[in-house]
Amino acid sequence: MQTKEVQGRLWSTAPGDWVKYLEPTFIPMYQEALNNLQLTEETMLLDAGCGSGLFLSMASITGAYIYGIDAAPGMLSFSKKRLPGTCLLVEDLEALPFIDGTFDAVTGFNSFQYAGSFENALIEARRVVKRHGKVVIGMWGKGQDCEAESVLNAIAGLMPPPPTGVAGSFVLSEDEKVEAICQSIGLKIISQQSVFCPWQFNSDEELQKAFLCTAHGASAAQTAGKNAVKNTIIISAQPYSVTDDVYYMRNYFTVFITEKV
């Protein structure tokens, strides 16, 4: 089964929970990208891995021509409700259905690292952007700067190791790996910003739903059973319990603004 099919199925498990509990936490990251891109009515923008479409909704206010692709039909169903008439396609990050140099900017938030090959996904993004166009990479910061990592690691412990070559959430955040890959494929990093995106859940149920709606949680539920995953989430999240059933996790994400050279 191709990466697109695997990821598309996992991220379509509970898209409504993603929209409710996690997607809004990334608004600071989306705003950071928009501040740097300075979109206009003449800008052609592709969001690669657009999910349920919150970033594209924010970008649409600028008047830019917006396009989106995602592997998850469940996620795209929310994008289509938010953005009727917008070109939104179920496609693979490593095989974008656009000709070379189509876009002024390509963005990818929490998406490129889940491709079968992070490098190939970036090569495709670079291919479809114009010369001197921008490719934005939004992804987890280093593990020690993300308190959600311990919960994700606990969930991962319920599953077999990922296939060789699959990057995962935090592997690419260490040791300047993104910088090295960008340089090797002709993307010049012009800005790198750490953005604070805290997660807050107001009950055990919200906490569980938030992690179960991710590909990590959905995959673990298929392997170990939903109850085992729910218990693991609660136990591993105890250090972040503020009071009663309220949980608060400090997370930092990194936004790379790169330019095609």
Number of domains: 1
Beta-strand fraction estimate:
15-25%
Count all strands and give the number.
Answer: 10
Structural class: alpha/beta
Outline the low-pLDDT stretches: none
Q: What spatial order of strands do you see in the largest sheet?
A: 3-2-1-4-5-10-6
CATH superfamily, called what?
Vaccinia Virus protein VP39
CATH topology (fold) name: Rossmann fold
Separate helix tally: 11
Q: Write the H/E string, N to C.
A: HHHEHEHEEHEHHEEHHHEEE
Structure explained in plain terms:
- The radius of gyration is 18 Å and the shape is globular.
- Helix content is about 40%, strand content about 25%.
- It has about 260 residues and is α/β, with parallel strands linked by helices.
- It has 11 helices and 10 strands.
- Helix 2 (about 15-20) packs across helix 9 (about 205-210), helix 7 (about 150-155) packs antiparallel against helix 11 (about 225-235) and helix 9 (about 205-210) packs across helix 11 (about 225-235).
- The strands form 2 sheets. Strands 3-2-1-4-5-10-6 form a 7-stranded mixed β-sheet, with helices on both faces. It has a 3-stranded antiparallel β-sheet with strand order 7-9-8, covered by helices on one side.
- The mean pLDDT is about 95.
- Strand 2 (about 65-70), helix 5 and strand 3 form a beta-alpha-beta unit.
- It has a single domain, classed as Rossmann fold.
- The chain has helices at about 5-10, 15-20, 25-35, 55-60, 75-80, 120-130, 150-155, 175-185, 205-210, 215-225, 225-235; strands at about 45-50, 65-70, 85-90, 105-110, 130-140, 185-195, 200, 240-245, 245-250, 250-260.
